[in-house]
Amino acid sequence: MSKILVAFTAALLGTLALGPLVIPVLHRLRFGQWVRADGPARHLKKAGTPTMGGIIFLNGITAGVLLVIWLAGRQPLLGLQDGLTVLGVMLAFGLIGFIDDFVKVALKRPLGLRAREKLGAQVLVAVLLAVAAVLALGRGTDLVIPFSGLFRDGGMVFDYGWWFFLAFCIIVVVGTANAVNLTDGLDGLAAGSVAIAAGALTFLALAMDKTWVAVIMAATAGGCIGFLAYNRYPARVFMGDTGSLALGGGLAAAAVVTRSELFLLMIGGIFVAETLSVVLQVLSFQLFGRRIFRMSPLHHHFELAGWSEVRVVTVFWMVQGFLALLGLLGIYGLG
User: Fold this and answer.
1) What global pTM score does this model have?
2) Using DSSP, how many helices (H) and how many strands (E) does the chain show?
3) Of 85, 98, 90, which Cα lies nearest the Cα of 60?
4) How far is CA 48 from CA 287, 291, 311, in A?
5) How far is CA 26 from the centre of its chain?
6) pLDDT tens-digit profile of 181-203?
């Protein structure tokens, strides 16, 4: 637990310390957020707020992890490769997001990278993760069924082989990264939700005997909480795709390495709901010419229903906390 506390605290303090240094630089570079004109009207005042703030907590998280490794010294670093794999995926997705943000704010292309470029890079990282998990980390290709410990001693697993696992891994990683990206639409919403999910994955990783994955997730939670000092309403900086894709990729990688992909559906329930709202909205409009929600993603629906931004974020955090707890209950009796 000492590693967990050090990683969390170091990432938290590192992020807090970096904020006042990085935000003015983003201001001077005029890396301001572009706000969609068809969104809620009150969001227009956010135009120009510095974006790409994900680099703040990504550096904080990395510094926290490196500190834990340094403090471990000559102690056995058994399982470190698991944690470094998760961190590597997080930083790789952060790089994809950084390039996308740079294209938006520096090259003045509001849509950023072309969809095929962004998706292709994400799929490549997911494939590399799947290969590394099976061949280097010995993860296997089975899936652990949540709550199955209630019905069978040790729980239940299903193994459909390499090709199913590869496809499933791509869906989980790419889907989670983009789901967190969709959630990042209100001040503090994504950072707080990821902090809760990462906290839950910290305990889950410990239960799965993946200490270094727990270290990465603890650092992620600390970095997100530190970032909230600058990203809560009214936000002084946005994480951008740099942050949201990185966080989503990191959560998914942790789930893959710990064989808890199905648990992530509950632990990251808010991200699932946000994504489903977009999918259902598009399908309903294309098939029936009608909208289910006032606007998607889901958080905008509640905004247009008259909720304040702070209220939406607070309620979503509470729901995320409940779902994260539910996901943790799913490990009962497993192993």
Assistant:
1) 0.95
2) 12, 2
3) 90
4) 37, 30, 24
5) 22
6) 999 999 999 999 999 999 999 99
Contact predicate 85/129, CB 8 Å: yes
Helices (H), 77-210: 80-105, 115-131, 162-183, 189-207
Q: Which two tokens stand for residue 31?
A: 């890396």
CB 21 within 8 A of CB 79: no
CA Rg value for the chain: 19
Q: What is the 3-state secondary structure of 162-196? A: HHHHHHHHHHHHHHHHHHHHHHCCCCCHHHHHHHH
Q: Distance between terminal CA atoms of the chain?
A: 20
Question: Which position has the token pair 């652990």?
Answer: 144
* Strand ranges in the chain using DSSP code E only, listed in sequence order: 142-144, 157-159
How high is the pLDDT of residue 335?
A: 67
| CA atoms 39, 44, 48, 54: torsion sign | negative
> Which residues, at least 6 apart from 214, have a Cβ–Cβ distance to it below 8 Å?
3, 4, 201, 202, 203, 205, 206
| pLDDT (tens digit per residue) in 40-98 | 666 667 777 999 999 999 999 999 999 999 998 766 678 899 999 999 999 999 999 99
| Phi-psi domain of 235 (left: phi exceeds 0; alpha: psi -120 through 50; beta: other) | beta
